[in-house]
Amino acid sequence: MKKRRREFNWQWLAVVMVSYTGVGFGQDEDDLTKANAALKQAQEEEKTAYDEHHSRDMARAATLEIARSERRRAEGALLSLREARKTLEQIPDAAKGAPAQKNLSDKIATSRKVVERLVPDSTAADKAAWEWLVSAQALRDKTAARTTAQRNLQDLKANAAEKAGVADADAMRRAVYELEALRAFEITHWATYQRANMQVLVTQTREAARIAKELAAAETDPERVKMLEQFAAQEAKEEIAAAKSVEEAKNAEIGAAISEIYPLKAAAMGGLKPLSPDDWDYAKARHLLVRAGFGGTPQEVKQLHSMGLYKAVAQLVEYYRQPAARVPFDPVPPLAPDLLEAKVQTDLIRNRAAGARRSVERGQVAKLRQSWLKRMVESPRPLQEKLTLFWHGHFATQDSVVNNSYTLHRQIQFLRENAGGNFGALLYGIVHDPAMIRFLDNNKNLKGEPNENLAREIMELFAMGVDQGYTEKDIIEGARALTGYNLDQASGGFRFLHNQHDLTDKTIFGQTGPWTGDDLVRLILKQPSTSRFIAWKLFEYFTYRDPAKETVENLALVLRTNNYALEPLLRNLFMSEEFYSSRAIGNQVKSPVALVVGLLRDLGANQLTSYAGLDSATGEMGQQLLEPPDVKGWRYGRSWINSQRLFIRYNTVSDLVKSAGRPEKKIGVDVLALLEKDEECDGPGKAVDLLARACLARPLNKEKREKLVSHLGDLPPRSEWSAKRTELNAKLRELLVLMLSMPEYQMT
Q1: How many Å apart are CA 441 and CA 204, to the nearest integer?
Q2: Which of 26, 27, 718, 740 is 20 to 30 A from 657 via CA?
Q3: Angle in degrees, 0-180, between the axes of helices 725-740 and 684-695, rounded to the nearest 10
Q4: Paired sense of beta strands 511-513 and 485-487, if any
Q5: CA 738 → CA 49, 119, 150, 535, distances in Å?
Q6: SS3 label, residue 580
Q7: What per-residue confidence (pLDDT) applies to 10?
Q8: How far apart are CA 381 and CA 320, in angstroms?
Q9: Mind listing the pLDDT tens digit for each residue in 193-245?
Q10: Sequence-ordered list of residues with C-beta below 8 angstroms from that of 450, at least 6 positions apart, any chain
Q11: Beta carbons of 263 and 274 less than 8 angstroms apart
Q12: Sequence-ordered list of residues with C-beta below 8 angstroms from that of 423, at least 6 positions apart, any chain
């Protein structure tokens, strides 16, 4: 099989990397000998530079502390001098005697002694700081040389492995990319190191200059005044130079930013090829916001676009840096039946008592669904909710079977808390999840009477895929490992029944031991099919169906390399060319939840007073939260569309446009507010274009655009919009309903 080589932009790396002449990239022994010698020399030079820098660092720290101490002494002396002068000024001339005059003279003398130490000690600290910088930059360069020498040697080895066709040639090539990424990574942190330490010099010189000026103002000796003013001027120059060094370091950080590091890291992990930052545009920013969330207003898309590809992806993937949504939901634990209930002999009374409990349960389930919809609409962490929805469909459980909204709430919370964390943690958690245990009858999985449901679905649907690396024997043995994993009906929590757990040996995937359910998960995570299955599921959910095997394998490699951490996979996916390809954009049918939540987020109508109607509508369209069709979860894609569901989708969208602005008063979305936020929107054509950009994945064709513009008709000047808000909003809502009724709106 032909080995693939990735191409990268080396312009920046060529500047910061140190080249070694005489080190070629052939495969002969002489080249390897030279490369090894170059690495050894680079390591020795780095050690020498490190020792020098360590010495300079200690000297800088010592002089810095002395200078800081002298500044404190100088400020204290200056304060005492001012107080003595103030006291003397308040004494009448006739009463001024020798004691007061002597006190002032003593304070002046003390101040001058302090100056005699402040100036040289501050100057010494400045000198030590600049010497520190020289040594830090020397060490940086020597570290660069060592990393480059390592890279050169690894490149020779990788070339030889590729030429020989050895099995681990790809891994050796990825090691080359990793060293290249490491070099760029080191540059960013050297810049951070320099910036932080030189900022100390900025503060040091600024404070020394300020104190010197104040001392000069309090001094009476012209020569001393001149000396202090010269020192203050010199410190001001030092501050400017130090600030320039800080800015240079900041620019170096930007220069060595993720745009250079990330493609190399992706190659080192074997991940998907990143999109070029030059190809990032508004349409791709909207695509990212829709797929990695549920959408957003044109202003939110513009903000994401202005960040650039890498920061935009980080903004969404690192959602834990954003505040959590404030959607309170305080569930009631399972209500226990009254002890007298079972003794009631009249069916009517007994059923009435049981019905009261069921009524509380049904009401709580509805509130749970509605609070989740509200969270999806309002959350500043859209990816977290999009992932929670994915895992809810992946680890599917049905309320109609579980009949316990409290455990379902806890399950959704668990999925939310681990949504972008680690798949291993999710899998370990799901075998302890009371709702899942009840749904798949693991509460009936007892020693001597194994129930295979949970073991089968963990392998087949949750982790490995159908018939992917396991046998019926593995399922049976896995069920034995899960015996005793139960739930407590009263509290709704997990309960391990030790006396019902099979302690004997089990053989799973060829490994024998007294395995538990946790051991089963550990063994599953070691199977190659697990990373491929999860990578495939996530790719299809966020990108497009039926990806190539190579695409899945590249993404699975990222998952394995990072021990099943999901953030690196998501980052790689959302930065990839595949994610922004023509096959991905505008070719995914919106799920009912994505349809309604996306519309509200696109229009900025995120203040609904009730989500009961939205909950009912998504259920009618085929996606009722907490009630997937079966253990396989929802079938995404064209399964969402049929003649009846399409009619409901159109009506739901139309109703939202007409009432989502103020639902309690049936006042529709303030569409005009969207147009007003765009200063360039001043006519029907631009209004249609703006709404199309806000709601559609792809531009309108010419014919449809012209029809919509014609339907809207003329708009008054912007200066009259506010006065005609009601009339204009009625026209714009009518236009928007027409636009959202087009087939294009059903796709994302």
Answers
A1: 69
A2: 718
A3: 50
A4: unpaired
A5: 70, 77, 62, 38
A6: coil
A7: 29
A8: 8
A9: 888 999 999 999 999 999 889 888 887 888 888 988 999 999 999 999 999 99
A10: 476, 479, 480, 483, 502
A11: yes
A12: 534, 559, 564, 566
Predicted pLDDT of residue 21: 33
DSSP class of residue 468 equals: S
Q: Dig out the tokens for 737 from the structure.
A: 């309903």
Q: How far is 280 from 274, CA to CA, in rounded Å? A: 11
Task: Find out whether 567 and 420 touch, Cβ atoms under 8 Å.
Answer: yes
Return the beta strands (E) in 402-530 as ranges.
485-487, 494-496, 506-508, 511-513
Average pLDDT for residues 103-127, to the nearest whole number?
83
Q: Alpha-carbon torsion 632, 634, 639, 645, what sign?
A: positive
| 257 touches 251 (CB < 8 A) | no
434, 492 contact by CB (below 8 A): yes
**Torsion angle in degrees (nearest 10) through CA of 364, 369, 374, 380:** 110
pLDDT digits (tens, 9 = 90+) for 678-691: 888 889 999 999 99
pTM: 0.80
Q: Which residue has the higher pLDDT, 610 or 352?
A: 610
Token pair of 238 as six digits: 């030092």
Give the percent of the chain with pLDDT over 70.
Answer: 89
Query: What would the two tokens of residue 570 be?
Result: 């998501």
Contact 49, 42 (CB under 8 A): no
Nearest to 690 by CA among 650, 744, 732, 741: 732
Neighbours of 52 (CB within 10 A): 17
Neighbours of 641 (CB within 10 A): 15
343: which residues sit within 8 A by CB, 6+ positions away?
none
- Helices and strands (H and E) in the chain: how many: 28, 4
Q: Cα–Cα distances in Å, from 494 out to 365, 393, 433?
A: 20, 22, 6
Which residue in the block uniquely carries the two structure tokens 């980080």?
314
d(CA 650, CA 547): 31
Residues 6+ apart with CB under 8 A from 287: 579, 580, 584, 585, 697
Q: pLDDT-derived band of residue 101, with 50, 70 and 90 as boundaries?
A: low
Neighbours of 338 (CB within 10 A): 13
CA distance 23 to 159: 14
CA distance linking residue 144 with residue 46, whole number of Å: 9
**Helix, strand or coil, per DSSP, at residue 578:** coil
Count CB neighbours of 157 within 10 A: 17
Q: Residue 493, exposed/middle/buried by CB under 10 A (0-12, 13-18, 19+)?
A: middle
